[in-house]
Design brief:
By secondary structure, this protein is mainly β. It is built from no helices and 15 strands. Strands 1-2-3-4 form a 4-stranded antiparallel sheet, with no helix packed on it. Strands 5-6-7-8 form a 4-stranded antiparallel sheet, with no helix packed on it. A 4-stranded antiparallel sheet has the order 9-10-11-12, with no helix packed on it. A hairpin with a 4-residue loop joins strand 14 (about 160-165) and strand 15 (about 170-174). The radius of gyration is 16 Å and the shape is globular.
């Protein structure tokens, strides 16, 4: 039995209800509709399972890309997989980090930020192509002397990024 490592809420724009995704140490991601889960039930089947074609390590972070169909999943090896969760397709793999993806968030209106234990933050433009196709375009990569544990972007001020690192401080980028 798998123990789940990462959980993220997903808010699709094309259907009703709140969804959430959980990734596990086998590299699989499962999606459930929140209002269909019965507390205490052991018979809680996911709506979808996203199973990578290649060998994936532990899923450590999941972020909805706010397109109504796509999510990013980071793993313990520093890879980011982009999924179309409506079709179950892995549409792009991003390999820029040399260590575990610790956290991801949406930054600004159309960017994904990924943090890693390697001390880097990577910034990606989330570019929709057509109705369901998506491309992730690298914007920049910053490097710190500290392990980065988490990133946070506020909905109220989406152009400001906060992150915490092994210096035991919370830092801000804008």
């Amino acid at each position: 039995q798998s123990s789940f490592w990462s959980i993220s809420r997903i808010f699709p724009t094309n259907s009703a209800g709140n969804y959430f995704a959980a990734g596990n140490e086998s590299g699989n991601i499962y999606i459930w509709r929140a209002d269909q889960i019965i507390e205490g039930s052991s018979d809680c089947r996911p709506l979808a399972a996203l199973i990578p074609d290649n060998e994936v390590e532990v899923i450590t972070s999941i972020q909805d890309l706010n397109t109504g169909a796509h999510l990013a999943a980071g793993d313990s090896q520093g890879n980011i997989m982009i999924w179309d969760y409506l079709s179950g397709s892995n549409i792009q793999n991003l390999s820029i980090h040399s260590s575990q993806i610790t956290s991801m968030c949406l930054f600004g209106k159309e960017s994904l930020v990924a943090a890693s234990y390697d001390g880097s933050l990577s910034f990606w433009e989330v570019k929709l192509k057509g109705s369901n196709s998506l491309e992730m375009i690298p914007i920049k990569n910053t490097k710190s002397n500290y392990y980065i544990y988490s990133v946070f972007c506020s909905k109220e001020n989406p152009n400001v990024l906060y992150y915490s690192d092994s210096s035991k401080k919370v830092k801000m980028l804008d």
